[in-house]
Every structure is written in C-alpha cells, then in structure tokens.
Amino acid sequence: MISVNERDRGWLRAAIDLSRLSPPSPTRYAVGAIVVDGHTGTALAAGYTAETEPHHHAEEVALAKLADRHGGDLRRATMYTSMEPCTTRRSGPAPCADLILAAGVGRVVLALREPPVFAACVGIRILRAAGVDVVEIGDLGPRVREINAHVLDRIPERPAATA
Ligand SMILES: [Zn+2]
Question: How far is the CA of 70 from the centre of ligand 1 (A)?
C-alpha cells in the first residue's frame, strides 16, 4: 500500500464518523466524505449521505459545496470517503466516481469497497483507470460495515475483498 500515513487515517476516521449523521435507511448506505486540500492539509468541504436531500450521496454533497465556493484546482486534493465511490445510480445527476473525475480530484482514500447489495460497483477501477491515486485503508472497513448494519445485516456475510 502506497503513501498511507497517520494523517490519512485520521481524515478517513473523521469521514467515517461523519457518516453516522446519515439517517439509516434500508435503501441506501450511510457514507461520509471529506475533501482535504493537499497544500494546506485543511478540509475544504464535507458531506454525508442524505445531508441535503434523501437521494444525495456523501461525495456529491461535498463536491457541490466545493463547486459553490472553491472552483480551484483539485488535483492535489484528497477525497476521503468511508465507502468506494459508486458507479451505478438510480437517482441523482451521475455516479460519484464520475463526479469525482469531473471535479478533477487527484486522490481518493477509502475504507470499504461497496458491497454488492444494490449494484456491482467498479469505482476503484474507474478512478484508477482515469489516473486517480486510490488508496484503501481496509482495516477501517469493519467500522463502516457496522455503521451500515441497516443494509448489510440483511445479506449473508461475505469474506472481505482482497487486492
Ligand atoms: Zn455515490
């Protein structure tokens, strides 16, 4: 695993904590996302699932806040998100992986690959193929699973994905 440090772990934990604010619903995951400036190391924007509208995703909420007031170069920014950015959506403007690419975010750090409940997610693959530096901190994944028990307890437990 490349370029993971304590700062990354701290921001990812903060994104996971943020996801707890999302009202649990059996039709969606509770996700938290924070965009951090690569130069200053400060948070530019944060969001969680259903913060603004019931169908809004965490990454989408954070990026929308940024679009309102940042508009700068996000190639050096990192998106910390508790779960892999989605690639299939029934609602909303576009999957979060596409929104991240459109915003030009250069790096994504996540804890849990999206479990195959609602869709087969290929967020990591799509982001990496587009040149985004994607880092998984898998040992924080169980915390995300626990927060998403409202969805995941309804399906059989699977072994964690590797690679
Ligand atoms: Zn999404």
Answer: 21
- 44 near 77, Cβ under 8 Å? yes
**Residue ranges per structural domain of the chain:** 6-152
Per-residue pLDDT of the chain (163 residues; tens, 9 = 90+): 445 789 999 999 999 999 999 999 999 999 999 999 988 999 999 999 999 999 999 999 999 999 877 667 899 999 999 999 999 987 767 999 999 999 999 999 999 999 999 989 999 999 999 999 999 999 999 999 999 999 998 765 556 655 4
Q: Give the Å distance between the CA of 54 and the centre of ligand 1.
A: 12
Map residue 121 onto helix, strand or coil.
coil
Residue 57 CA to ligand 1 centre (angstroms):
5
- Measured in Å, residue 103 CA sits from the centre of ligand 1 at 14
CA geometry: angle at 89 spanning 86 and 92, to 5°?
Answer: 110
pTM of the model: 0.90
Q: What distance in angstroms lies between residue 23's CA and the mean position of ligand 1's atoms?
A: 16
In angstroms, rounded to a whole number, what is the distance separating the alpha carbons of residues 62 and 9?
Answer: 19
Distance 12 CA to ligand 1 centre (A): 17
Fold of 6-152: Cytidine Deaminase; domain 2 (3.40.140)
